[in-house]
Amino acid sequence: MGRIGVALTLAGTALLSACADVPVACPAIGHIAAVSLTVTADYVNQVGSLRLKACQDAACTEKDLMLNPGAVTSDEKCTPDGVCSATSSPDGTLQGFVELPSLSESPMEVTVSGVSKTGAALPVRTVSFTPRGSYPYGEKCGRVISAGVVLDTEGLKQQQ
Q1: I want to staple 78 with a disulfide (CB 3.0 to 4.6 A). Which of 3, 60, 84, 107 is the partner?
Q2: 62: closest CA among 34, 86, 98, 35?
């Protein structure tokens, strides 16, 4: 190989290693191991209180849910200097979660029980599913595993 070939090879190697070392800015957002629950707007009026039991890898966690009003956000606009804003509006749902000691991508079973606003027992609902892992901030910022369920008039299902 001549001098030009060696020079091109060295330049290509330098470029590739320079690209690999580019620092990535990741958001400073913490994630907790938890199962989230959304009660749909059409079922909210039937729910007084709920209890959630989540079992994964032979370990179960069961707690009463603190339910809060759900909301949707919508982007407003961004200024030329990159400052953006959004608004939040109630969507009629209820939201809650149960913190877990750990969360993995192995199958889990979630059971929800509760009472109506009149004190009558609600049907016990159970769903089995596999939590999902993703890279919401890019692969260099770490994998985030999430588990969520939706409770509606038809039952309990994994959150899409």
Answers
A1: 84
A2: 98
Q: How far is CA 81 from the centre of its chain?
A: 30
- Kind and range of the H or E element at 9? helix 3-20
Cross-strand partners of 55: 60, 109
Whole-Å CA distances, 9 to 1, 3, 84: 10, 10, 44
- φ and ψ at residue 124, rounded to 5 degrees: -75, 130
Nearest alpha-carbon partner for 92 in 68, 70, 76: 70
DSSP 110-128: EEEEEE-TTSPBPPPEEEE
Tokens of 142: 């770490």
SS3 17: helix
Query: CA torsion, points 68, 137, 148, 34, in degrees to nearest 10?
Result: -80
Closest CA to 62 of 6, 106, 126: 126
Please list the ranges in the chain whose pLDDT falls under 50. Answer: 1-2, 5-18
pTM of the model: 0.78
Cα 83 vs. chain centroid, distance in angstroms?
25
